[in-house]
Design goal:
The chain has one helix and nine strands, in the order H-E-E-E-E-E-E-E-E-E. With 163 residues, it is mainly β. Strands 1, 2, 3, 4, 5, 6, 7, 8 and 9 form a nine-stranded antiparallel β-sheet that branches. Strand 8 and strand 9 form a beta hairpin. The longest helix has 14 residues. Keywords: Signal. This is DUF3224 domain-containing protein. It holds the Pfam family DUF3224.
Length: 163
């Protein structure tokens, strides 16, 4: 019985605020996303496994990239991957630096890719808080496509207003 009374009181309080009470609406910040598109060259260098690494351990690779287009710059990172038949996964961290929308700086990206019998799921995200220089505060997603061997990107991002 007490639970029923408490429930009724809570519902009444939520659905019927006190007269003259005004609730402050939460501030809503509209985020405008921009797009930077272009191509990039990538060099992937395998790293020899440790002599005592178990069979089937993830392979490790070093990444070196050069970006062309709306983002001009370079990047480097490391990738771990496992592949067996048509299925596998990889993770990577990379740091890129260059000029985006006239602003010079750098930021980090994290990759997560999964392939299941040929079906692919890829997410590359800008690491929150990683932006430096004029790219401080950047956030977004890096969309990657490979067409006829050419690596293409669409960086969907937002930046705070320039100071």
């Amino acid at each position: 019985m007490i639970a029923l009374i408490l429930t009724a009181a809570l519902l009444a309080a939520v659905s019927d605020p006190a007269p003259n009470a005004t609730a402050a609406a939460p501030a809503v910040r509209s985020i405008v996303m921009s797009h930077a598109v272009g191509t990039f060259d990538v060099q992937i260098t395998p790293v020899a496994p440790d002599p005592d690494a178990p069979a089937g351990a993830p392979g490790r690779m070093l990444l070196a990239k050069t970006f062309h287009g709306a983002f001009e710059g370079g990047g480097s990172g490391e990738m771990l991957g496992v592949l067996k038949g048509g299925s596998g996964a990889y993770v990577a961290m990379e740091r890129v630096s260059g000029v985006l929308d006239g602003r010079r700086g750098s930021f980090a990206m994290v990759h997560r890719g999964v392939m299941d019998a040929g079906a692919q799921d890829l997410l590359i995200t800008i690491v929150p808080g990683s932006g430096e220089g004029e790219l401080a505060g950047i956030s977004g997603v890096f969309h990657l496509t490979i067409v006829e061997g050419e690596h293409r990107y669409d960086l969907e991002y937002s930046l705070p207003d320039a100071p």
